[in-house]
Amino acid sequence: MIKEVPYNQYIAEVNKQLTSGGLFLTSKGDKVNTMVIGWGGITFFWGKPIFIVPVRLSRYTHQQIEKSNEFTVSVPMGDSLKEALRFCGSRSGRDYDKFKECNLTALPGQKVSTPIIKECSLHYECKVVYKQDMIPENLATELNQKWYPDYHTMYFGEIVACYLTGEI
Ligand SMILES: Cc1cc2nc3c(=O)[nH]c(=O)nc-3n(C[C@H](O)[C@H](O)[C@H](O)COP(=O)(O)O)c2cc1C
């Protein structure tokens, strides 16, 4: 059962999971794929609710979002998806069908053609309204040295649907 919720109702829960295991970022280009993000988050921009997701250029997800211009974010709760987070956060969709490998179920999105992950409780469907490739010269030197040269594209996705499919 789908229960629509305000986009900003569970920001604290999203931030907690973001920094303690990560969120599933699902895309559909040539095929359905999911990866894990530990950075980014929900904000408000251009009068719209926005989910910012940082995706390095090397990720299969990057080429998928470039094609589809949309993505979904599914938030796992508790420890039940720990193993799936580990796998999806370290293996590429170029080499694996991660849904099959991790026994994840893709359910159709409500407002986008990218699916959500049934095994998660909270979901955000997003359409890209802006993207920005990082400009290395604009980054603080210590962060540049610590985290790069594989730079991120920041995708700003308008949250077009936010809902629960389970207990939170
Ligand atoms: C906890 C965690 C957080 C991560 N955060 C990000 C992130 O914010 N951006 C990113 O590009 N990769 C991040 N990764 C790495 C990707 O999830 C990983 O490289 C994945 O295999 C990419 O899959 P793909 O090639 O199928 O897109 C993270 C991995 C983990 C385990």
TrEMBL record:
Q: Name one Pfam family in it.
A: Flavin_Reduct
Which species is this record about?
Caldanaerobius fijiensis DSM 17918
The residues forming the signal peptide are: none
Top-level taxon of the source organism: Bacteria
UniProt-recorded name of the protein: Flavin reductase like domain-containing protein
Domain named Flavin reductase like: which ranges?
18-166
Give the similarity note.
Belongs to the flavoredoxin family.
One GO MF annotation is:
FMN binding
